[in-house]
């Protein structure tokens, strides 16, 4: 799966990574997995499979141990790739240390000419569930109205729709209705990307694809009533954003990357 832009030179190649859950000590393990090693293996695969990447989007939970050194190491590693990269916090992140944190509620907008990616912060300090502040939603509404000639992708950390997994659905984005109330007014939103659920999924609503992506770390068992790990490989999502407003997307998992998870862990 080597992707190129040969047939559509103004198209864009985007990679979504999510839920790296990095520790303060890069050699340490959590549930018998080294998140650093798993993250680096994912990035190595991305670089091997893609000859050109316009941006890497991280949809949150950069850190499992949210300390300045964890984030600094992430930033140092990503900067060396020489690929534009962007991130939003997840419930495990601490916005006191989160890279480039600003009290300004304005979402980050990734400008890719005809395509734009709006990154919304859905993390609530001290909570596992998600909520998008009204100031961000007001900004989003105005921005969508002002940019009707663009193709738009939104990104946030939390899942807007239920995953039919009782434990994880307690930790859903709790004001999805406020978001969809805005989205239903517009025709130029193509997809919403998120992490948090550590599994691949596709939900379609109002002609918009809602897409979740595997973690670069450990995976959660789909449709499980109680917390449960899934023994499938870490991965990432690529998106080929075409100049006609269509897009193709696929999840890629690492081949032959065996992880023995400590299943005794029973909480999140
Ligand atoms: Fe996570």
Please tell me about this protein's structure.
With 268 residues, this protein is of the alpha/beta class. The chain has one domain: Metallo-dependent phosphatases (Purple Acid Phosphatase, chain A, domain 2, 4-Layer Sandwich). It is built from 5 helices and 13 strands. It has a 6-stranded mixed beta sheet with strand order 4-5-6-7-9-8, with no helix packed on it. Strand 8 and strand 9 form a beta hairpin. The longest helix is centred in the N-terminal third of the chain and has 15 residues, at 35-49. The structure holds fe (ii) ion.
Structural features:
Purple Acid Phosphatase, chain A, domain 2; binds fe (ii) ion; six-stranded mixed sheet; 23% strand; five-stranded mixed sheet; 19% helix; 268 residues; 13 strands; alpha/beta
